[in-house]
Write a structure and sequence with these properties.
Strands 1, 3, 4, 5, 6, 7, 8, 9, 11 and 12 form a 10-stranded mixed sheet that branches. Strands 2-10 form a two-stranded antiparallel sheet. Strands 13-14 form a two-stranded antiparallel sheet. Strand 7 and strand 8 form a beta hairpin. The protein has 2 domains: 179 residues, no CATH class; 158 residues, no CATH class. The two termini are 27 Å apart. With 385 residues, the chain is an alpha+beta fold. 43% of the residues are buried. The protein contains 14 helices and 14 strands.
Length: 385
Amino acid sequence: MAIPIAYNFRNLVVRKTTTIMTALGIALTVAMLLAILALVDGLKTALNASGDPLRVVVLRKGSDSELVSNFDRAQFQDLKFKSGIAAGRDGQPLASLEMITMANLGKEDASDVNVNVRALLAVGREVRPKVHIVSGRWYEPGQREMVVGRMLAEQHEGARIGRKIEFGRGYWTVVGIMDGGGGATDSEIWADLNQISMDTQRVQVLSSATLQAVDAVAAKALINDINNDQRFDLTAKSEQEYYDQQTVNATPIRDVGLFVAIIMAVGSSFAAMNTMYAAVSRRAREIGTLRVLGFSRGSILLSFFVESVLLSLLGGLLGCLLVLPLNRLSTQVGANFATLAFAFQVTPPTMAIGIVFAVVLGAVGGLFPARMASRKEILTALREV
């Protein structure tokens, strides 16, 4: 005969102070784990939202990012007429020659952060139709004007409309805020390619090219064609693959966070174990009485084990509540020498991981005390005070 689970609930309520303290310890461990997972998920979501399998990024061979790639205009003139590239509204190939450099916002808002400046022509915006202006307007070609990503503008006062950013040979005016759907574009500054290249004295040597393929088959063929073309010292990959590779920035954050969470988990597991050992010692007569009433050793072991799991489950639920305010909270990390803004992602699967993690802690912490409770002799238990 099994001991009713109401017995376990009653014990947790009666010993509410011990229950709350132990549950809070577990909750902090779970919250720490979930915060790290939410940060990593947010970073991956931001980078994955940036990639389109039909867009092809072309870099200099050996380069792992646009920022460190060199790409000259002469190569682009030959590249943009390759087969498989879609045509734009004007009938010209949807091939965007671009340059990536960095600007520092520290002079304006004392935050001292580096941000990516993407210089491109009008075709570059046509290649990315989902990017749109939410406030202000697009920059005018030939003018010292910039458009800033939405999340960048939210986090830095110096990147808002009307503010001036010191860059290149002078100051540039922010004239618009753009929304890239939560991708890396929301952390970038866009400006006119020709004006940027003159200011930085990089008229011929730029960074990369972005090509829009007709379809998935054409995209794959285009990538193979560029990679195998001996005339170019270039490498091509889908934009989706390119941004997937950038998620390597999340790996150290995740690993360090998981290490800290494991250390805290060991402490929380011992806390749960100590709580249950204390409960076994205080309730020795209860255990003896249960045995006299006919409950088996297995029933007592299961009862104390379930009580430990319930205690840890409470801690897991509290941990989920503690981390919920982080959901959609904007933050930023360094990515390829520049700042990438993104939002924490606290999703139901993430919270489920936290609850399972808490239950495992409770199971580990409650097994040995439950075993000790089940092995108590009836007469010995009844004599204990």
